[in-house]
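Re: the pair you flagged

First of the two:
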Amino acid sequence: MAYVLAMDAGTTSVRALLIDHDGQVIGVANKEFSPLYPQPGWHEQRSPEIWRAQLDVTQEVLKSCNLSAKDVVAIGITNQRETTTIWDKKTGEPIYNAINWGDRRVAPIIENMLAQGLDRCGGKTSGHRYFADRFRKY
């Protein structure tokens, strides 16, 4: 039989669900992790911790259902809105922690951009303006 693996990386945990051909959830695994708050208004996560937790719950749900990766025919993945991670192209390692969607460190920059009317320029050809500030320090 073929199964679908649904994976979700949330703000404080990751989960994996296995779904059978009839759409029934036959297995669930969940693992929590701790967010980081290095300064007021900053909200980060360790990218390797998210990745490791997602691998762990995937292996756990497969094992609990006596299945292997070969039994999975499709994977659905969701994540945390605009959480952003930068990876080193050569090493595959993160350059910095994931900056969580709730992070407020660039609020003054955004307020300045809005005051200048720059919000009307974003999103025309390149997508959502939310990401315009994310890599400013890099």
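Second of the two:
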Amino acid sequence: TAACAAKLFGTRWSSPDKEMMTALWRRVSSTWQMHAFGSPEDILKGFGRIKFDIPRQLSLGISALMRADYKCFLYWNVCGQELKVGFGALTVPLSVVLQASESSREAAVNAETFANLRDEFRGAAESLIKEQSLGIVVALSSYHRPASNGDEYVLERQMALIGKKELQPIIQGAVCFVSRQPGVSEAQVLRVDQKARGVDSSDTTLQSLTDIFFVSQMPVRLSRKVLEPIFREYFACLSRPHAT
């Protein structure tokens, strides 16, 4: 996958992964389908061009992207209740999806190609919450940003949380807990402008869900595999009795 890029060696993959990739390459390099590729790195670059093509990915729909790489985790006795949290991994910037971009390149994608993506994100999260009895949805994005130093790209991460209205204090606490990690930016609170969107003020979807808590910068190392135990630690804190 794109995680096996040379610049991520030692961070996202290691020597055993490299040995396996070399062994696989020896097996497949003799087939006619692989003659167009000179090395495993060529395949990774081609895959990355598709995987991180923002308009192409967004054309699939936010709901499909949220479910393409998705895992659900169950946490016990969180403030006295069972809590299910869904983690969806996307390969488009959440700043584009949530229309919270400071990048002119990303803003152009929003303005020219897609509209109301924030509403679509909220609808996708609501569907997951209803279908799987979730309390919280965590969206993680990893994406390519063109580098300014001559390299082809820089891999970056972002995160967004949304959940049931009654869990807003827990979500806010989770965001603060994660923000203790080095390199994590402060969260922005993003709202759906009902008047601008022409949304009925009695819409139960808007009333039942929290605002969107968006973290625009996170270290690449904070993948779902690394981040989930941090959430687990936070939820465990909420299950412990506090001294009075």
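Confidence is low (pLDDT under 50) at residues 194-202.

-B.
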